[in-house]
């Protein structure tokens, strides 16, 4: 090892390894909540119903907090700016070498262990206190007091020494935690500025928008840096406790961030957007079944799959001016179909592509009701939770057109009231939006056929098919034997079923009640 290399290792801090710090979901959501809260068209229940936490994790591999926050924002956004991003994603998906170069320039972002969007887009940083201007004079005053006390022998001067030393200690103790937290913020901002400079230095048309202020980014990065010499063993303690360099740098670097907030915000947006596009391009390059969706008033998904299912069975699904009532046997995949349609609609709105061979999708928000359950802590029963969610969906429908995806509505009450309440809510909802609902209450199909086209999910050979119509052969009782129930149980269940079928036959004509809805 050369002398230069040895000195470099002593004087310059070693670059931290890529950590991929496990940020909490609340941290990832902060950028959207602080800077884009008004743009969100996706609510919390739909986020969970559509398995978007798991999907986001799939996209976020080898992506820093910056890219993750931008992906999260886009999934919640109205999709108005998706076209420009889609062009860049398509370009990157076709060029592995270009992806690798840009990815290497962004690697430093993955060393960040602190979320900074709240610092940049949240409440403004307070200005430095006025007393900070006096801080550089305290250490010389302390040293001068020590010298005078030793030379003159005046005992009172030692009291001055003690007071000055206590003042320095008090400043250090009072700001210790704030400085440690700010150091993490500052280090993350420096990684952002460093990646900004590295990306701008590439001869790549996709980073041209970073070149205009790349010089400013580099200068600000230098201003935020601390002296490397101050990191030498023994020097840091002397520098901080006597000369208060950490406190002075804390306030100075914070002021620098306040002064250059517009630059930092612009850098955040552009670097985060580029890294998000890289993540999407990398994902699509590894995903054989995908297409770029066409925007239209109708919905058509040809051979569509769910990206989280390793062995997903492709389905074709289309709507022409109406919603859909979906029936099918237990375990056939109705809920999976709903999630497949919902997730692909959200992804098409957010990113521009679908997991299908061909796709036409409306640029509409998606809201769902699929996982309502008893809430013991809040004292909310299943039916009350379902009523609350149905009320929320009706309120959302009044604001703007949307797609509503609903699975087994009103399971928490008796059969007759479940059908009655479901018919009323679904009919009203379908007048204001597009409803896709699955239910085992097959009588809802003729009740709602003027608003919701009946579709049946069935197995054909080794695959699944969605075809017009209503389920003819149920399998709820047949599953008793398949799951190990005694034959006597199945026989009793069949006798009750036959009696109920005669007593509560499906109505042949719903015109009278249907016209009153």
From TrEMBL:
Pfam families: MutS_V (PF00488)
Residue ranges occupied by any DNA mismatch repair proteins mutS family domain in the UniProt entry: 321-498
Keyword field: ATP-binding, DNA-binding, Membrane, Nucleotide-binding, Transmembrane, Transmembrane helix
Membrane spanning stretches: 141-168
An example Gene Ontology CC term for this record: cytosol
GO MF entry, a single one: mismatched DNA binding
Residue ranges of every copy of the AAA+ ATPase domain listed in the record: 320-467
InterPro entries documented for this protein: AAA+_ATPase, DNA_mismatch_repair_MutS_C, MutS, P-loop_NTPase
The keyword Membrane appears for this protein: yes
GO BP annotations, alphabetical order: mismatch repair
Name listed for the protein in its UniProt record: DNA mismatch repair protein MutS
């Amino acid at each position: 090892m050369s002398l230069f290399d040895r000195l470099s290792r002593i004087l310059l801090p070693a670059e931290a390894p890529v950590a991929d710090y496990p940020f909490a979901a609340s941290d990832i959501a902060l950028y959207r909540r602080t800077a884009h809260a008004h743009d969100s068209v996706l609510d919390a229940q739909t986020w969970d119903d559509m398995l978007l936490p798991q999907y986001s994790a799939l996209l976020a591999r080898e992506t820093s907090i910056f890219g993750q926050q931008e992906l999260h924002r886009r999934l919640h956004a109205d999709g108005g700016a998706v076209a420009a991003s889609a062009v860049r994603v398509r370009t990157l998906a076709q060029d592995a070498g270009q992806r690798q170069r840009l990815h290497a320039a962004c690697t430093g972002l993955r060393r960040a262990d602190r979320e900074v969007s709240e610092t940049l887009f949240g409440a403004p940083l307070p200005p430095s206190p006025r007393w900070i201007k006096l801080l550089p004079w305290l250490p010389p005053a302390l040293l001068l007091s020590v010298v005078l006390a030793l030379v003159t022998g005046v005992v009172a001067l030692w009291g001055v020494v003690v007071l000055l030393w206590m003042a320095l200690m008090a400043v250090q103790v009072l700001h210790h935690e704030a400085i440690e937290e700010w150091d993490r913020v500052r280090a993350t901002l420096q990684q952002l500025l460093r990646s900004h400079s590295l990306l701008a230095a590439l001869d790549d048309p996709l980073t041209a928008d970073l070149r205009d202020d790349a010089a400013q980014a580099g200068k600000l990065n230098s201003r935020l840096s601390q002296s490397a010499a101050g990191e030498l063993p023994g020097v840091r303690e002397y520098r901080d406790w006597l000369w208060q360099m950490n406190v002075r740098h804390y306030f100075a670097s914070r002021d620098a961030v306040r002064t250059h907030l517009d630059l930092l915000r612009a850098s955040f947006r552009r670097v985060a957007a580029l890294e998000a596009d890289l993540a999407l391009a990398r994902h699509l390059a590894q995903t054989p079944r995908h297409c770029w969706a066409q925007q239209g008033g109708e919905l058509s998904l040809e051979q569509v799959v769910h990206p989280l299912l390793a062995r997903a069975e492709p389905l074709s699904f289309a709507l022409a001016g109406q919603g859909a009532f979906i029936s099918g046997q237990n375990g056939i995949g109705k809920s999976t179909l709903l999630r497949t349609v919902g997730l692909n609609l959200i992804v098409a709105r957010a990113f521009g592509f679908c997991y299908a061979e061909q796709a036409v999708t409306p640029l509409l928000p998606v809201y769902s009701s699929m996982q309502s359950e008893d809430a013991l802590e809040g004292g909310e029963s299943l039916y009350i939770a379902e009523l609350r969610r149905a009320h929320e969906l009706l309120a959302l429908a009044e604001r703007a057109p949307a797609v509503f995806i609903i699975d087994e509505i009103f399971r928490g009450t008796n059969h007759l009231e479940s059908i009655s309440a479901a018919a009323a809510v679904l009919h009203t909802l379908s007048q204001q939006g597009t409803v896709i609902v699955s239910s085992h209450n097959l009588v809802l199909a003729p009740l709602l056929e003027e608003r919701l086209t009946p579709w049946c999910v069935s197995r054909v050979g080794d695959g699944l098919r969605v075809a017009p119509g209503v389920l003819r052969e149920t399998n709820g009782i047949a599953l008793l034997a398949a799951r190990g129930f005694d034959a006597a149980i199945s026989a009793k269940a069949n006798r009750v079923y036959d009696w109920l079928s005669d007593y509560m036959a499906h109505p042949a004509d719903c015109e009278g009640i249907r016209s009153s809805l």
